[in-house]
From TrEMBL:
<dbReference type="Pfam" id="PF11917">
    <property type="entry name" value="DUF3435"/>
</dbReference>
<protein>
    <submittedName>
        <fullName>Uncharacterized protein</fullName>
    </submittedName>
</protein>
<dbReference type="InterPro" id="IPR021842">
    <property type="entry name" value="DUF3435"/>
</dbReference>
Length: 227
């Protein structure tokens, strides 16, 4: 049925050109016959998305305020107003009024957390689709350009050139594409000579590897390594 629907002569066409080469299942659990760690595999397979600077980290002011329009929050507001009118003077100091305020704050916090989680999960599936569509259409997203600028600001000159060369758009002509590849290769070669990280200081020899050469008893004024 699959071959008929896709117009393939055999299943080999699908396996060669359509089947993903990325393994997203816990193969170790399959071999060992234990329960697969689905959450761990999902986190590992979406690692690049979790570090994407475009990934929502917090709600906007509008999104945060939108929870006040939820029915459950509106009902709590109504309960608080009815209690306020019932208690009349000094209502804000009453324990019941304090309790319902706490309940409102807890519920709003829970709804905001749920909203952020929903937005994040939806973005994990929608953003890759938008990236592919923009790439096929030859459109560079402003978000992509801004994220690249933010990342490049903290890099050294050689690393900046490497990032720019690696993320350069494909050339419109064969000559332009060859030039782009040549510049990328040159940037990689230039970056190979850069030492990343700091050099750790040499290890200081311990005191039992040295002996005193002068000074009063019980005081070490000079040390030389043991031969």
């Amino acid at each position: 049925m699959q071959n008929l629907m896709m117009g393939h002569a055999s299943i080999r066409t699908f396996e060669k050109h359509y089947l993903s080469r990325r393994i997203t299942v816990d193969t170790q659990a399959v071999v060992r016959g234990i329960r697969p760690q689905d959450a761990l595999m999902r986190a590992a397979c979406t690692m690049s998305r979790t570090i994407d600077p475009r990934r929502p980290q917090r709600l906007t002011a509008e999104q945060s305020a939108s929870v006040n329009d939820l029915s459950i929050i509106r009902n709590l507001f109504d309960r608080r107003e009815r209690l306020k009118h019932k208690l009349a003077k000094g209502a804000t100091q009453h324990p019941q009024y304090t309790d319902i305020n706490r309940e409102i704050n807890r519920e709003k916090q829970r709804q905001r957390h749920q909203l952020l989680q929903d937005i994040t999960e939806r973005g994990e599936y929608e953003q890759p689709v938008r990236d592919v569509e923009n790439q096929l259409a030859g459109v560079e997203s402003n978000d992509d350009a801004m994220a690249a600028v933010i990342a490049v600001d903290a890099m050294g000159p050689e690393q900046k050139e490497l990032v720019k060369a690696a993320h350069a758009p494909p050339g419109e002509t064969p000559e332009a594409e060859i030039g782009r590849r040549s510049r990328a290769i040159g940037a990689v070669v230039a970056y190979c000579g850069i030492v990343e990280g700091r050099v750790l200081p040499s290890r200081v020899k311990r005191s039992h590897d040295c002996v005193a050469t002068s000074g009063k008893a019980g005081t070490i004024t000079d040390r030389v390594p043991l031969q």
